[in-house]
Amino acid sequence: MLTSLYGDDATGRSFIWCKFKSILGQITALITFYMICFSAVDQFFSTNHRFNLRQMCTLKSGRYFAFILMCCAIIHGIVMGSSYDIQPTMGCVLSNHVWVQYSTFFYYPILVGFLPVAIASLFSILAYHNVRHIVRRQLPIVRRKLDKQITAMVLTRVIAFVCLTLPYNAYRIYAINFPISPSMPMAYAIGRVIQTIFSSISIINYIINFYIFIIFSSRFRRQARLVLVKKCWQRWKYWCCSINNRIEPDNNIERRNSQMESEENI
């Protein structure tokens, strides 16, 4: 909306918006990338044949690590995002030379580049290796199928994460070190087009989970069909049609509710 009104996203016009957008981008990127790493690590431990390793990853420890990650991401985002400033010729860019070097040599290539990619890839491959040898363990067939299904989802998510993250990180390293001034219209327009393409590819990281779960999880497909078709559609019919004026015995309503609850538990 801001781009359509003013020709840009207003980061070069508003000092507060420049810093806030940078801070929010740093926080969401770190949380998203390392949550993917946590899911791969959790799947590795939960499918490991050693009982003591399986007991290490619990719901309580997962919440604990997620809370620490969010706190670190918020602190990092505020500190780094505050170093962005508006310059007359460049717009909203990193103005501190120290933070430029930090972004060039550590943040983009390592912190949101090599490190999460290496962690997620390593543990997803190890989890896949565990699942391939899961037949040796005395587990119910349903549990084995569930482990294989979740591992396939995690591995696919990691592959998508690697493919969608690396191009944008490479572009950001170049853009920080070689910013293009708006006084050069052609070069600036080409840079904006390239930035839009890589940004759009990177944004897929935040929306692809639903489609991966739909493809690889039959249980998730049943739940999605139940919620979208049998709940949302029925409620829409109830509110938009004349069904709400129809008198129905209480036992029929209770029977329908119990039927929907039993379908949810399948």
Automatic annotation (TrEMBL):
Keyword terms: G-protein coupled receptor, Membrane, Receptor, Transducer, Transmembrane, Transmembrane helix
Keyword field contains Cell division: no
G-protein coupled receptors family 1 profile domain location: 1-213
GO molecular function terms noted in the UniProt entry: G protein-coupled receptor activity
Membrane topology: Multi-pass membrane protein
Transmembrane segments: 23-45, 65-86, 106-129, 150-170, 190-216
Entry's localization field: Membrane
Coiled coil regions, renumbered to chain: none
GO cellular component: plasma membrane
PANTHER family: G-PROTEIN COUPLED RECEPTOR (PTHR24243), G-PROTEIN COUPLED RECEPTORS FAMILY 1 PROFILE DOMAIN-CONTAINING PROTEIN (PTHR24243:SF230)
Name of the featured protein: G-protein coupled receptors family 1 profile domain-containing protein
Lineage: Eukaryota, Metazoa, Spiralia, Gnathifera, Rotifera
